[in-house]
Amino acid sequence: MGADTLFKIAASLLVLSSVCVAAGDAKDAVFEVGGRVLCQDCAEGWNQWVNGANPIKGCKVSVTCLDDRNRVVHYASDLTDDAGNFEVTCNKYVNGKELKPQNCFVRLVSSPDPICNIATNFGGGKSGVKLLRPAIVYRDIVKYMLGPFYYTTPMCDEPDTSAPDEDDLGDAKQSNY
Questions:
Q1: How many CB atoms within 10 Å of residue 100?
Q2: pTM of the predicted model, to two decimals?
Q3: CA-based nearest residue to 91, from 144, 146, 140, 27
Q4: Topology of the domain covering 28-154
Q5: How far apart are CA 135 and CA 163, in angstroms?
Q6: Residue 45 confidence (pLDDT)
Q7: In whole angstroms, what is the distance from residue 102 CA to residue 70 CA?
Q8: For 26, what's the count of Cα atoms within 13 Å in the CB-facing half-sphere?
Q9: In whole angstroms, what is the distance from residue 18 CA to residue 10 CA?
Q10: What does the domain layout of the chain look like in residue ranges?
């Protein structure tokens, strides 16, 4: 082999290795979403209701990410721990395309608590919270901190007694969140 051939092989290996490293970086790029889920009991006094919410273990919280055409491209979920904390890790790249955290929503899915299982919108957990600004950006770490989200008891849930509007009846006009 000549020096020219060895040079071409070395250059090819260098380009190939840089592509593999870049692909590995993209594959490892993630952002994290964390928060807390609590139970508010309206039967307590005002101070207890505001300050005495208890964590719920085993609540399911989801992250749903949409593309520019409002199609779901990523879904992830996590269960809360003993302290009511959740942490969902999402890849920044799905099928070779970059996820935009600004197009992601976090919402409550379910509560295993037989008493405290009515999702509230106090904190935005029922309708979904859009990721806006990360709370932590440090080196390779991007983390969004949300919540707390709240569940309540059926006794505290206010029923919707309003008459349905015509807009509520059409599927095309309803929002997913």
A1: 14
A2: 0.71
A3: 27
A4: Immunoglobulin-like (2.60.40)
A5: 40
A6: 66
A7: 12
A8: 13
A9: 12
A10: 28-154
